[in-house]
Design goal:
The protein is α/β, with parallel strands linked by helices and about 425 residues long. It folds into two domains: about 240 residues, Type I PLP-dependent aspartate aminotransferase-like (Major domain) (Aspartate Aminotransferase, domain 2), CATH 3.40.640.10; about 130 residues, Aspartate Aminotransferase, domain 1, CATH 3.90.1150.10. The protein is about 45% helix and about 15% strand. It contains 14 helices and 13 strands. The strands form four sheets. It has a seven-stranded mixed β-sheet with strand order 2-10-9-8-5-3-4, with helices on both faces. The chain has a two-stranded parallel sheet with strand order 1-12. Helix 6 runs parallel beside helix 7. The longest helix is centred in the last third of the chain and has 23 residues. The chain is globular, with a radius of gyration of 23 Å. The structure holds pyridoxal-5'-phosphate. Pyridoxal-5'-phosphate (PLP) binds next to helix 4.
Length: about 425
């Protein structure tokens, strides 16, 4: 018999990773993923049995540490194999179904995603549209709650796309709670970079990813449900269509040491180490580090002569948005800047979904002084190379001044 060759797929010739990856790793200073500490990288290289005593101990510690980071005593902490978006979908697809009234406060790209996920499970989603670079006022939220009578309110703490911080979050959660709605908060960008107190603020579900504030790898995320939210999950009359994201099935693995699907063991070990480093640092010191570094970076960028995108009162510190300057170079695009700084300085920064800005992250390991100096210098040089008139020495001086003065203040406080 002669073999038929027509359907045979030939073995491909490809390049090795060594040939593809840059010789010197790029410094990841964009809107995520962010650099990971050595302990996280080491854990991520290990595979263990996804069931059994060792894994159960790791999972137990992950939940305990996550409760500290979420500031909750709720039992219902779960991990998710998937991006931050999978945790968002886990929240919405377990808490909402056909006809559920959802009010989504939409500040931009990511808060719109939450609304879209609600529509896809058949929920009756109403948007509170917030203008770019502003936050919803309490009056607007109150009015929307009266009109919509939502069972669920969704909101993002930090809208990474346009770098807006929803600083009314605590009061908005209180308004929603008073009306009897459950509050779902997307804290993918912000968790462990700035205060969020799930229990004290009355939040019913908090979502986070690995690769942003926590400085872990992308692909393993965390979610916490309040008792009230968990009651709604357990009281559903029909199972969610999303089998992998079904919180009741995930309970098997995350609470009963049983099988749901094979957990991403390496990623869970990496997350364990990322959380352990947060605990070792403490939230207070971590928030202070992020604030100090982000404000210094903002001071440096402003002193160079560039404009920050979000107004000061609602400016997100975890990701800094910078307007693309078009005075000297009307045709300059975010892609030009990101491409140049990556190729010439081995520093990665981000554009933003069509907005005329570039973004520099201040999440986890990004918020370190040595990374700030390298990034600000690379950014200023890039601008000059691209024909934009900036005062780079003034920027670096302002960065140093801001870091030095907040160190002095910190020492005075500790004295
Ligand atoms: C990054 C981000 C997401 C999405 O996370 P993925 O891991 O890309 O799915 C959602 N919300 C916010 C606020 C984010 O910053």
């Amino acid at each position: 018999m002669t073999p038929t060759t027509s359907n045979v797929v030939p073995c491909p010739e490809v390049e090795s990773l060594d040939a593809i990856l840059p010789e010197e790793p790029l410094l990841m200073m964009g809107a995520g993923p962010v650099p990971i500490p050595a302990a996280v990288a080491k854990a991520n290289a290990i595979v263990i049995n996804h069931l059994g005593g060792t894994m159960a101990k790791v999972v137990g510690q992950v939940k305990t540490m996550a409760r500290y980071v979420f500031q909750t005593n709720s039992k219902w902490v779960l991990g998710v194999a998937g991006p931050g978006s999978a945790a968002m979908e886990m929240a919405i697809s377990n808490l909402a179904w056909s006809g559920t009234r959802v009010l989504s406060i939409k500040n931009g790209f990511f808060s719109a995603r939450m609304a879209e996920m609600g529509r896809r499970v058949g929920a009756d989603v109403s948007l509170l549209e917030v203008a770019d670079r502003t936050v919803a006022t309490l009056e607007q939220v109150e009015e929307a709650i009266r009109r919509v009578r939502p069972e669920i309110v969704t909101i993002v703490q930090g809208e990474t796309s346009n770098t807006v911080w929803n600083y009314h979050l605590k009061d908005i959660a209180a308004l929603a709670k008073k009306s009897g709605a459950l509050v779902v908060v997307d804290a993918v960008c912000t968790l462990s970079t700035m205060p969020l107190e799930m229990d004290a603020w009355g939040i019913d579900a908090v979502i986070t990813g690995g690769q942003k504030g926590l400085s872990s790898i992308p692909g393993v995320s965390l979610i916490a449900f309040s008792d009230a939210a968990w009651e709604r999950v357990k009281g559903r009359s029909h199972a969610s269509a999303h089998w992998c994201l079904d919180a009741s099935l995930a309970e098997n693995f995350w609470h009963n040491a049983g099988y749901h699907y094979t957990a991403p063991v390496s990623g869970v070990l990496a997350l364990h180490e990322a959380l352990r480093l947060v605990c070792a640092e403490t939230l207070e010191k971590r928030f202070a580090r992020h604030l100090k570094c982000s404000l210094a970076l903002q001071a440096g960028i402003s002193a160079m002569g560039l404009q920050l995108y979000a107004p000061a009162e609602c400016r997100l510190n975890s990701v800094v948005g910078i307007e693309v300057p078009t005075k000297d170079r009307p045709d300059l695009t975010p892609g030009d800047i990101c491409g140049h700084i990556s190729r010439h300085h081995q520093v990665e920064i981000s554009g933003s979904f069509g907005l005329p800005i570039v973004r520099i992250g201040q999440m986890g390991e990004q918020a370190r002084e040595h990374n700030l100096f390298r990034t600000l210098h690379a950014f200023g040089r890039t601008m000059i190379d691209l024909g934009v008139n900036v005062d780079l020495p003034a920027g670096v001086a302002a960065l140093e001044r801001s870091l030095a003065s907040s160190s002095a203040k910190g020492e005075a406080l500790n004295a």
